[in-house]
Amino acid sequence: MSLIAISRGTKSGGVLLAEAVGSRMGAEILSKDRLVQEAGMEQLEADIWEQIKDRPVQQLDGTLRLSRRQYYANLRAKLLEYAAAEGMMVYHGNGSHLLLHDISCVLRVRLVAPIAVRVKLILDRLGGDEGEAIRYIHEKDEVRIKWTRFLYGLNNIDSPLSYDLIINLDRFTIELAADLVVKAVGMGCFRGGEERIVSLKNALTRARIEAALVNDARTEKLQLKVKVDGGRVTLVASDLTDPQLRDVTEIVQSVEGVYDVEPLPGV
């Protein structure tokens, strides 16, 4: 099992790197846009952006918080389904590693490039004017930063401590960068042994449960902590009424892979 998350800015070569790494490894290549589409979150993403694009992220109302939870839960569940099924996967997008934050065997790669390199990538692929390319990069980067702040609650995802490997295309070609990534993911700490496979399956079950709960009108606003050990699920919550507890238990029991549900009072 080899899982790689490539995070990049606008036109920083992330797509090219993902394609090169995927080709070398025979791995599934998954983009953020494809993930959104397959998770059925395109309209919700558009609706959210329309509401937040001209306002501070701090001014979120309850409806937006719920939309954020729905969007995040469904994307994470879909991504973990791919990770568990494919064995080898390369996922690329801005802050891509954050959807896999609790999976220890993921190689977290950050790809950076000077503005001149990014402009050249645009002009080589799309043509156009250098000034327009620079404006496009800056505008798209601002969108990505705001979206990441909204979705993950982080002001800065560029901290070196968030990544295992940072590659600067100022001195590396895409081919050399791909060689580095393939070599790094083959190291012991990133290879998925039995323990890591079990951990990934537990994370997938938990993600499916969280998505199921937030997608159901009966439970979408409830705050629950979900613990998974194989097919055994423990739910930690406080102040649930008996009808709410019945609804939660019914929904969780319907999730694939769950065979036992134990509710515990919140602490």
Folded structure, characterized:
The protein is of the alpha/beta class and 267 residues long. The protein has 2 domains: 2-190, P-loop containing nucleotide triphosphate hydrolases (Rossmann fold); 216-265. It has 9 helices and 8 strands. It has helices at 14-25, 32-38, 42-52, 62-86, 115-126, 130-152, 174-185, 194-215, 242-253; strands at residues 2-8, 28-31, 88-92, 106-112, 165-168, 225-229, 232-237, 260-265. The strands form 2 sheets. The protein has a 5-stranded parallel β-sheet with strand order 2-3-1-4-5, with helices on both faces. The two termini are 36 Å apart. The model has no long low-confidence stretch (mean pLDDT 87).
